[in-house]
Amino acid sequence: MDDLSERISSMIRSFDEETNYLFIQTIFHAFNTPLHDPCWCQSGKKYIKCHKKRHELRKISEGEMRKELLNIFDSKKYCSASFDNKNCKMPIKGAHTIQRGRVLSSIAKDGHVGSFYRNNSGFENVRDIKLGVKKEASIFYGFCDFHDTELFKEIELNEFIASPENCWASSYRAICHEYYQKKAAKKAVTWQIDNLDKGYKLSEQLILQEQLMLLKRDVFKGFDDILSIKEKYEQVRISSNYHMISSYVIVINEPLSLAVCGTMSPYYDINGVKIQNLGISNYLFQHFAISTVTVNGKGAYVISYLKEHSVIKNYLSDVFAKSNDFIKSWLTKSIFAYSENCFFNLDWWEELSSDKKLSIYNLAMSENYTKKIDIDDVVSSEVKGEISSIDLI
Length: 393
Known about the structure:
single chain; alpha+beta; five-stranded antiparallel β-sheet; 12 helices; 11 strands; 15% strand
């Protein structure tokens, strides 16, 4: 029995009497679906063309699944700046979500940085977490040649100045990366629904399809959330009304050890009170963007959000009302807990104790959005430097 079958069997064995009875009834009804009726899986296909003989097909191996999902994420190439598509100029570039020259190069060791990005099988040594700065780290194919240059030229060519326009540019790139990933995730979960239960018996198919449909619901919802934010950021650019967003610029008095580019959507505030996912229908989750820049050679993080997003405004107000030590702990722990698109200096990693490495690795690999996270110094105690300034833009 493979691992997946064993996990499903364990789940079924844990059913209470009533759940088990209902599950048996579900199996019976699915098995007796008329051949030309819609399939029980709600694919829209006829049963005979969908699940009737799926148990006879060859199972998809874990390696095949990973390869296919990676291909899906790597093959999506388009310009995210759809608000200005009349100016798009090919080719689509392998764009860095994090500045290569000023940021990634500053934390690189022999041209490489560390990351847990897409690492689903653990690691045994530094080779397993090492990425090349030039061709791998933070690359995504989400902008054409024109927009990758035009939208970000001020922060790419010049020293970062904490202006509303520069904060917009840095955070828009983070939002577009999140949009790009979530759009690919929609295709990935659809592929899983169509293929992952091949070769499994009907009872296992039912469990898998239920779990995948829940995943599809969450993935599609997440895409709608970030699409709404992306469109509002683009209205900021079109109208030049950069004061529709607020930004905190946090400057560290040391060169960078950690870099990040992404968005975060907290479910809980820093006191453990739930602030999102409250069961409100049609509610669009609010996010803040976090990106990395340098200011006079020192590390700096830009945290931006739409002013109309009161949940995020209140959340960040609570964070930044705390001491700088707390803010650093919150910042560094959040980077690993909530963003897979983060990178770190390999010398920094090599100097950590085995216990610290394991704690940070487990933090990075856990599903943290729906959990309460204690703000402690598990990461910040190992990151050099202190916060020298915080500006609200």
